[in-house]
Amino acid sequence: MLKQVADQALVLGQAKTGQGHVATYIPELGKADPNKLGMCIYTKEGEKICVGDTTTRFSVQSISKIMSLAIALEIYGPAVVFENVGMEPSGDAFNSLLKLENADGTPYNPLINAGALVISSYMVQMYTFEELLETVRKLCMDPDIVLDIKVCHSEMSNLSRNRAIAYLLESKGVLNANVEKTLDYYVKLCSLSVTAESLANFGLVLACDGVNPLTGERMLKVETARIVKTIMLTCGMYDGSGEFAVRVGIPTKSGVGGGLLGVVDGGLGIGIYGPSLDEKGNSIGGIAMLEYVSKEMDYHMFGNRKRG
Amino acid sequence: MLKQVADQALVLGQAKTGQGHVATYIPELGKADPNKLGMCIYTKEGEKICVGDTTTRFSVQSISKIMSLAIALEIYGPAVVFENVGMEPSGDAFNSLLKLENADGTPYNPLINAGALVISSYMVQMYTFEELLETVRKLCMDPDIVLDIKVCHSEMSNLSRNRAIAYLLESKGVLNANVEKTLDYYVKLCSLSVTAESLANFGLVLACDGVNPLTGERMLKVETARIVKTIMLTCGMYDGSGEFAVRVGIPTKSGVGGGLLGVVDGGLGIGIYGPSLDEKGNSIGGIAMLEYVSKEMDYHMFGNRKRG
Amino acid sequence: MLKQVADQALVLGQAKTGQGHVATYIPELGKADPNKLGMCIYTKEGEKICVGDTTTRFSVQSISKIMSLAIALEIYGPAVVFENVGMEPSGDAFNSLLKLENADGTPYNPLINAGALVISSYMVQMYTFEELLETVRKLCMDPDIVLDIKVCHSEMSNLSRNRAIAYLLESKGVLNANVEKTLDYYVKLCSLSVTAESLANFGLVLACDGVNPLTGERMLKVETARIVKTIMLTCGMYDGSGEFAVRVGIPTKSGVGGGLLGVVDGGLGIGIYGPSLDEKGNSIGGIAMLEYVSKEMDYHMFGNRKRG
Amino acid sequence: MLKQVADQALVLGQAKTGQGHVATYIPELGKADPNKLGMCIYTKEGEKICVGDTTTRFSVQSISKIMSLAIALEIYGPAVVFENVGMEPSGDAFNSLLKLENADGTPYNPLINAGALVISSYMVQMYTFEELLETVRKLCMDPDIVLDIKVCHSEMSNLSRNRAIAYLLESKGVLNANVEKTLDYYVKLCSLSVTAESLANFGLVLACDGVNPLTGERMLKVETARIVKTIMLTCGMYDGSGEFAVRVGIPTKSGVGGGLLGVVDGGLGIGIYGPSLDEKGNSIGGIAMLEYVSKEMDYHMFGNRKRG
Fold first, then answer.
1. B299 carries an active-site annotation
2. Three-class secondary structure of residue C264 per DSSP
3. pLDDT tens-digit map of C89-121
4. Closest among B272, B304, B285, B296 to B42, alpha carbons compared
5. CB–CB contacts below 8 A, C to D
6. pTM for this structure?
7. B235/A225 touch (CB, cutoff 8 Å), yes or no
8. Which residues in A lie closer than 8 A to residue D170 (C-beta atoms)?
């Protein structure tokens, strides 16, 4: 039945791709084919349902924010990580400076750019980019993840706003490393090339409390998985997180490369690729697919006991 | 085992009450005894665990916001209700005017004062206060809920800020009824006197998707319960909602009367009374109890599959 | 020569009236004839130059803010008046609530609605409306100023936003009298019917440091006149005050009834009527006239020594 | 008489220096002697009244903002200069990012850091630093002005916030040159070493509409001088500009190096040095001196006709 729902979701999603646009503020992203769309649903029982374009590589972009958050929590623990970054939704757009100005200078949460830069400033001190890449490959069970050099260069050339945010954080004393090194690390992380499959694998690990259910290997602590899922739920879709939680109820993180990573807690990881974006920067076809699947399969977090 | 955990939670909570203060901005609330503390946990199997002061009556205050939201959703449906109020956490304090100014004038969500006033402006047109009272009594399985006249008068005499919010909403065209009638309705709703038991009962109905598990009677639609729980999770604890979701993971709503209503989805309703408040206006002892119970019993929403 | 300049200014101003709109948020104001335009320039030597429609009565609206400020300064002195209202331009629109939220609750200056309400709350305690009316008639040398009942009623029926501001001020503890009495007083003051001539007379008194140059009678203290002129210059044209000071350099206050009152310090009072407004709410023809006259006659405050 | 007033002002100012603090956010500034205080008043008739420490060199800091504004107006004219920077007081602190976020990205005025950076981005393209230095020396009639290398280095090492502002401006498309070159130019300009005498000379040129009254040489256009004086009046003292205009009424610009430059239009230039600052970053002794002199000599802009 899940296969039929996925097939139908693809049809519905494809009908939406024409209404969106690929990201253009990073020129290299503008080259993506807006008609591409695909979804993988991986279950803890080992079932793998893939529909559409699920092997195309694309840059992970903001979905990397939950990867670096997870790894930082593993290395430093929540007490240290949340010293310089909060856990609150900001109610503002992803690249806002507004909320930095009001409070004590710490970013609202790790999934806005400012917060992710703080996380990167922790990581860059302890973890080389090569080590990070190795860990991301393991979490995604995808040894073919590499740095997309073209995207990385394109982003490096259009970095003024993130550079402004990073220098502002430094001036507030909440950045833990050199600004330019932090930005370099952050941009490289955003430029990793993944597939819908890679994302589904990482989603499954989160759904299973940090364990790869196929091998039984623990990859993240239970607490790390719980924190990441909760923050995905409250902050993962920027200033549309609240409405998405009500309508879909699946902790999800999006990236402007067209990716979506969803976690149906206790059972499923979902990876989506669809570079045509809505006006908030989320995959327009992907959102439609996720919403349909959630409704048909009763995947809303406050509806899941009927599945068991 | 749940009983022992509840007993221990009470001990821990009582150790906290001295660090808070009762609300004083409504003079009548200032008369509460700060040492009072009690908790009821009601399960769908019919178990009722009560520790401490669980029969003291106190005014429901902001917890009424989830009652009126639930009833409005039943009467009007989500499409109408969310025309003039959003579903996003605001990142601001409960009585903030800041976010009203920026957007299209619609309040961020139904659990801030502005949003609850919009909801009241729907209700006041279709539902007399007597009808409302009757429905609240049923949802709480508590026929003794009455209007606390003293609290109501005290609040009516200290209404400048809410009156400002209501007139501002009217000027933006997002209030659906006469301002003074809406305020009167809103204040009466806040002044209903409940107990920890009443709150646990309503919590249990939400946990069971709108059904009273003891009688099998459906009291709310599945969709209503799901929406209310989700918004409690993302917006229920004001500008501390995100951190509370990470640490405790139980959809909860607080009131400055000292009440807390928590929902462990699929199984439990929790009602708490403890009028000594922390600096955010939440029951200081109650928060400590909820956090301890969640941790010991693994009630975090992203940890619940291990219970089954 | 001044007469020719005034005549030419009228021609230029009339060419602009078609590009603006009369105010409609108060329905009664919407009935004004957008083609009307007139200007009076009164000099301390007794010269009176009037061009266009200078005897039409219209409601004084926000220009009353400098009248009540002047009278409050006379009665209470600056130390008391500026306890609950500041002297800073806000950089925001005239009816903004934004800046009230940030600071200590005191309005930025007496020429935004919030500030004028604070001033009214001082006045209402000490000065009946009849006394106020008498003083305004004297300052404007116009015994025919009356309350325009229709405008007053129209405004009273559209008072939500000002009512919101007033209740907010009350909740902050910066209003000195009953909210509804203050609003009533404020609206009546805004509804006084003046002419371009009345405004020119009051402007001349300010230009002459508080003395009626024709009779020699002192009507305001030197200090009062100085404070009022300075605040007109920095705050008189709302969020366009800075640019107006640079380009025109004449302390000016506008009202949505179409009036403008300008003060060429040391010599002239200027009154203008032109109900067609630009998007900031200032008389579109009147602004054009003032700018032309300032340039041709070198009336900019930092150009005036060449006149002597 | 002016000499006695100046002497008395020095006594009053010295009594204040103990209540302030030297700037420390740029470490090199922290080395200044907080007890230093001096004032020069230069008149168009050639009178030079100097009291206290008027030959000590100190860095010009934000007072350079009126120098670069004046020069940019000379080179580009107001139409070009005000394309990317406004003329409105912001109501916020000098280094605020808040107002950049709301509007179209253009800074509120040329005297906040963001605005001065835009001005520098114009200058850096057309005017080498050596040319700029030469012009500043002429405007200040002080050939000994040099770049203070220590201050410049110290500031370059503490530039995170200004760097953030500059990159933000670049991301908004309102910076006209390379960010790092603009910052370098801006910091050098702030690091020029002046004396109270240099500032009095430049003030006198502004007071005389751009002419050096001693030589008769025109150094700035009339329009340039008028614009600079007006913007000094409305924006020169940051979020205290409005109150300063009311109380003192002398267009003034301050710098955290301890300098103040005041212009009594039509007659006088005033230069002050006093590195002990109040909490807004203005010379605490200098403000007291200016206020006293203004009051005693009737130098308020709306009191000046009695002097003639």
1. no
2. strand
3. 876 655 565 555 555 788 999 999 999 999 999
4. B272
5. 110
6. 0.93
7. no
8. 160, 164
